[in-house]
What we know:
CATH architecture of the largest domain in chain B: 3-Layer(aba) Sandwich
Shape of chain B: globular
Oligomer: heterodimer
Helix content of chain A: 25-40%
Number of helices of chain B: 9
Number of strands of chain A: 13
CATH class of the largest domain in chain B: Alpha Beta
Radius of gyration of chain B: 21 Å
Number of domains of chain A: 2
Bound molecules: flavin-adenine dinucleotide
Amino acid sequence: MRILTIVKQVPDSNATIKVLAEGKGIDFAGLKLVADPFDEFGIELAVQLREKRSDVSEIVALTLGGEKAGETLRIALAMGADVGVHICDPKLETKDELFNAAVIAEAMKKDAKGFDLILCGKHNIDLDAGAVGPAVAEFLDLPHVGAVTGLDVSADGKHFTARRRIEGAEEVVECDLPALLTIEKGLVEPRYPSLPNLMKAKKKPVTLLTAGDLPGVAEYAETTKFVSISAPPPKPECKFIEGEPPQMAKELVRLLRDEAKVL
Amino acid sequence: MTSNVLVFIEQRRGKVHPASYQLLNLATQVAAQTGAQAEACIVGEGVASLADAVAAQGAKKVYIVDDPVLALYRAIPYTKALVAALDAAAAKILLVPTTFMGRDLASRVAARKRAALAIDCTEVRQDGADLIAVKPMYAGKFSGTFRLTGDRLQVVTVRSNAYSAAAPQTGARADVQSVALSLTDRDQRLKINEVTATGSGVKDVTEADIVVSGGRSLKSAENFKILYDLAAALDGAVGASRAACDAGYQPHTRQVGLTGKVVTPKLYIACGIDGAIQHLAGMRGSKVIVAINTKKEAPIFKVATYGCIADLFTLVPLLTEEFKKLKEH
Ligand SMILES: Cc1cc2nc3c(=O)[nH]c(=O)nc-3n(C[C@H](O)[C@H](O)[C@H](O)COP(=O)(O)OP(=O)(O)OC[C@H]3O[C@@H](n4cnc5c(N)ncnc54)[C@H](O)[C@@H]3O)c2cc1C
């Protein structure tokens, strides 16, 4: 079984993000970048599958992003992926997830051995969208299961059952491999890569791909173009409600009914 | 290609997701700008009876893809069904609610149709042939504006409560067209074996108009009962911070935040939640936010509309009583 995990480098969720003049983008200078926490669930899952089974032949970690994204690939390699693929070309860097998915799918088509299981996060915390997984699956004519919270791959490595979370319910689905899964929180807890493993990861092979290596990408266009980013309009100051708890409760209910009109 | 706007009506077991009707209202406004019309597509099993309700919400034409294999949501069969309806409608814009199903389906449909796509939008407007979509970025800390090119289908998922539904026009009629679906075995590689309701009959946080959330300060699973009582009085759902879920007070299905669920209810009541940036990522889009916290400096007050500096164990039961009184009147 060969496993591919797709990882994206994103700003750390604790970082303070600054917007560039005129909202042209965000200021990456000094910004702490990490592997997307949902994608990390995918890497961890791949590594745990190998620890549990004897038939996982290779774990490939793939990223699409600028030169710095190589650091994120190294985290994936330190967590246990064997080889990396880095699609690194400014021409291919967009905020259009459909286009990004097409690029990733084209890179996967170049891999002659093929993948049985493709894992990525439920969504990425930069674009807050979640189209990459389903779209990669669509471009490769694979089934996918979104927001997976449980996984059981059959002994022969040909099928799986997965648990997925939908609004108000959970479903158990069954499917043949190859397939793509997007991972929800709760299935695995990502390990911290140890220092020795980070050192070893530097020696693991990484293939660099540019637009020239992916002629199939020419079929696709960036059709959703980023225009600008802005801080949400400032919230009006919080209105503090005074008084002892019984008055407070009465006043809050009054405000919610008469002023905010949400009741 | 006409410039009609098609709305995907999300239903599970015959129950329509309320965001679908909000989108029909948006579709009517967008279509009016170009003299086009708002249309709807319902996919499922035994869903034809929903057509009248959908017409009452403004759909001028309703495409129905009705088949037993569509009883439960599966990405590929639903993609095929919705694409068949899109082709029949020759629509230029497809609006889908931002839900688990909506994100999943819109992504796949957009990829298949080589469409332009924006997910989880809070604002959608036309600019010539293009569509301008505004959506949260960086876990809701910012909003991004995107331009979807007008030379192709534009697919947009829209947040619950970003737009409101129109008052239903009972008796309004729509053309109803049934759309045929043919699936291969390959389209049905995925099977659903089991569906279990989580939270035993209690509403999910993503479905409720009112969400009452608790944090680590609740101290135990039992203590969450006061929040369930409050939620019951408001016909709302109960959510929790990650600290409360990690401590086992609530299942992770109720976690709100960056690595939990993103909710945009009309009213969000945060009880004993500090307001860490990762929690805000999941709830700052709520229309009205109430924060109850003993600590005046708690960051939750920065996003709150109304703040109560109080012990939640005292205030929450009092609030429940007040809301109950309000209901009785
Ligand atoms: C990658 C990552 C992802 C994360 N994802 C999420 C996520 O999805 N959701 C999430 O919530 N967190 C998430 N976190 C964790 C987040 O950083 C916080 O640790 C967490 O939200 C804190 O939960 P809390 O507010 O319940 O607890 P605390 O921080 O312990 O705050 C408790 C609050 O209760 C108040 N309080 C105490 N007693 C009372 C009382 N009797 N009455 C009223 N108020 C009282 C205190 O003043 C305090 O403000 C994430 C963190 C990371 C690093």
